[in-house]
## 1
Amino acid sequence: MPSIFMVKALQDLEDPAAHQQDKPAAYQKLLDHIINSNDDPSSLSDNFKVFIDSVLSDNLGIVAARPLLGAAVESIKTIPDLNTKIHAGTTALGSLESRVVSFEEQDAQLREMLADAYTLQEEYIEAAKVLQGIQLESSQRRVPDDHKVAVWIRICRLYLEEDDTMMAESYLNRAKNLRHKVTNPELTLGFQLSEARILDARRKFLEASQAYHSFSFSAILDEGERMRALSSAIICAVLAGAGPQRSRALAKLYKDERSPQVAEYGILEKVFLDRLISHDEVSRFSESLAPHQLAQTADGSTVLAKAVVEHNLLSVSKLYNNIGVTELANLLGLDATRAEGYAARMLEQDRIMGSIDQIDGMILFEGVEPSSERGGLSRRKDLAGTELRKWDSRVQGVAEEVERVASMIQLQHPVSEVVLLNRISTKPCIDHRVRTHGTLIGFSAFDPDQR
């Protein structure tokens, strides 16, 4: 309960005979006494309550009451003990509730202070609920768009700390409507990170990987934050379902010059190069995953186990032309029925090309890269086109090697243009114009009869 001194002092201030002009200064002096007193925590909260109740009474006008309430909020912020601060702030918030329309600014300050205290105690849901009570759409005060987005993103991130993606996404969608009006780059980064985390939590790993990777290039972040975002991008790419889109995402991450610096580079390299991943490697990789990334799917397997099985199956399709269902099951670490089920599903989704011969218990793979744009083309035609592309690629590779060797020779044994022109001019020719570096300075067309 409040101290006797506080009760007596407030009664004197509420006396109609007291001078109205002296009341604000007297209230401020009383507020300083509350902060400097050595009352126990419960009395401190009660003293703040009776003080705020007195300020909100008809004893003072709204104009005089607003700065006093603001000063009271600042005083509550200085309380060192978190539990006492939360109790005093909650009590003050209850007193303000009936007149919040007239004191929206002070109510918002009080709620933000309480949210900070709850966050320090890792009570994220309570912090989010307190912030939800802030009046951002009001006719009594003008709230800048940047401040609205900041509050919504903070609520979103608080819900994400408790893996409540539904509530987090609802507030992220509110911020999305004003994103084009935001001028603060830090808010934009906060939005991108929240969006990536929601996609990650909803197991949309491919989109999450792209969002994390884009986030990792921000110059505003320090080096540690950028590398953590890159690690998250690699983890999400590995967990994504095997297919052409995932292969493109893996290629982009593998070619990132920063990737060798993160711990996940080893498994990224194996996945990108279509190498089989062993059980021990999966166990080590799982130690760096978040709880939602280890959650079980509908078939009883984890997200990681499913991603590894699909990757190994894709690797097998590139290593073998055909394989028995039993042998495939041994490679994947599954029973024959589940191994055939995984193969059938990936064949149906065109993530691997081939067919299943259930009579002979064989899976036949075709040497065609899976594509989401196959349309009605036959697989035989695709196979012929693939072989032609391979031949073209080999020819191109030989030509590039010849050009590289020629460039190396020229670097080791450079010949100046003057020497080259002198050599050309000593031979019989019809015309002495040569085009060098795109400029016409002479060209030597030798007379075929003089060769």
Note: The first helix runs from residue 4 to 13.
## 2
Amino acid sequence: MGAQQLKDIKIMLQRHRTANDPEFGLNSETAELHQLRDYIDAVLNTDSIERLSLEFECFLNEDTDLLIDLGSLMTFKVWGNLVEVSWSSVSLHQKEIECFFEQRQKPLESLRFSTVHLLTGSWADTLEILRTAPTGYQVSLGGLSGAECTDLSDEENKRIFHKQSDDYWGTSRAEDFVTGASEKTPLTADETDQHDA
């Protein structure tokens, strides 16, 4: 089958509504969502994938943090050839992220988290997992929520997750930690106290 030879897959589900349109009806319990997950499972069930982008903006509710749970989609198989990953508007458990990286057979070249919600675990431990994963990849982290991010002030969030300069190649403290450019995790109490002093 042709799908079994796919190397680049991008699944993007976006909302295109006006103010007068009804609310999008999918949630975690609808039959339509289960059918969608079955479809995505089938599409991803190939060992040939090298670059994968999953963007589920349509499941992002402006009033809640309810995003589509991506974990089971990413841990049901070993991704032998995957070198680029982009996850946007999804929710994950720390254990699922850890499992995904434990199954890695090749170092990633690129990893992007955009509007990712951590359901359980901590971002401090998750950043450590990303840091100790097979190295050599570019990292982009933005719009992280859940866990200790819930208690961060806007100032703390900006200090940790926003670029430290306006330069195109600027990086955040979290990204520097993951790539090894910095030795100190930006989410420890000591680091927070140091910057608040």
Note: Strands lie at 8-12, 51-55, 68-69, 84-92, 110-118, 138-142, 145-146.
## 3
Amino acid sequence: MLLSQGRLRQTILALTLISILTCSLLLFRADIFEKLPVPKQFKSDGPPAPKPTPLYKPAPERRPDITDNFPRAAKANSSSSLPEIPPWNKPPQPHVPEKTPLFIGFTRNWRLLQQVVVSYVTAGWPPEDIYVVDNSGVMQSNQKGLLTLQNPFYLNYHRLTTLLEVNVLTTPTLLTFAQLQNFFTYTALEKEWEHYFWAHMDSPVVSDEEYEEEGQPYRSLYMRAVGVMRETMQPDYGLLAARWFAYDRLSLVRTQAFVDVGGWDTLIPFYMTDCDMHERLWMKNFTIEDAKAGLVYDVASGIDDLEMFYRRKPTSANREEPPSPALRPDGRNSPEYHELLRKLDEMQRAKNEDKAGRNTWQSAQQGGKGEPFYRDSAGFEQGISMTMNFGRDVFEAKWGRGPCDLRKAGLDENDAWRLVPGWEKEEAQKQAKKDREREMKEQRKKTENRKKEGR
């Protein structure tokens, strides 16, 4: 009993000591913390600072709204309400034996797209062979008529398919230039087209009504293009990849050639991807040859009334009046034809001399807010520009140099992604020489050491 009481007293004493020590430590820590400086983020020097408010860039200058540049089509109910295609340019009936599909890619600017489609139709291209590729990235919005004219990505699906009677293919999402080109090739493979044509949407065409071949009847731009294609289909023609009409503003492509080099490099989205593709074709001994079929222009604006392409005199100064069915197209090589050429020449010159750049047409429209897949026009333009710059960097990384003339620099397809950046520069060449000399010296030393060890 006594032992138990002694142990109890010891336990109580121990607990008391522990309590005293604990309290002392707590008081000591509290005293230290009182003397320590309070971190800045925990100080309260008054009311909390207001959160930063978003700072906005100045609003871009508002451009004038665009107007539709085919008033006659805007009032038409069917294709028969449109002007007559000049008889000398009408597509052959029946269709030529060859398949002659023509792709025209579209992302922005309805006026220019409508202009180039009308130009090909009036130059004799069969409408059923024309494939507008809606690459606006708005999915089915244009097909359902959900966008308005001021929207940069607006396309009048009904007018193209019902009035102009061309085809419209829609990409599932917005494609870059390189991806769009591969889409053309893929579609050609799916439809078993050995050849196809493709055209820029800012490059209207006109049949050359003054061109004559000795002993040959007049041929429209379309029939001359068919003639060029027939040349390339000869068994002994050689390794042809493409024929260019006014550079590649209109191109004839041999499908399998593009497949054989692996298609367009989609890591290079826009500028320099054409250089990469064409150089790789040449490296594989394919040829790209120039050809002529008619007049091909490069413009940044649209004619205000596309009826000019039908070579008709204005039906009336008052656009509310119905067209006169008795008014026939003017004759071939007429003053109206030359007025059309003069207008297109003027537009092409304006594009080349524009100090703001050649592609101002791409950002001509600024509307569409609140519509499906709306994108800020200026922001979209900036994003595309950044992507273009990225592509230039990729090209330079792929080939170790920026200029396009890869074969002239002594490169072939096996050099892609294997070259030191800036390998052509004098400093890089000197460094490479030093590295080789050092490696050779180290190799000789290793050889000598092995001989000594062998003894």
Note: Residues 2-35 form the longest helix (34 residues).
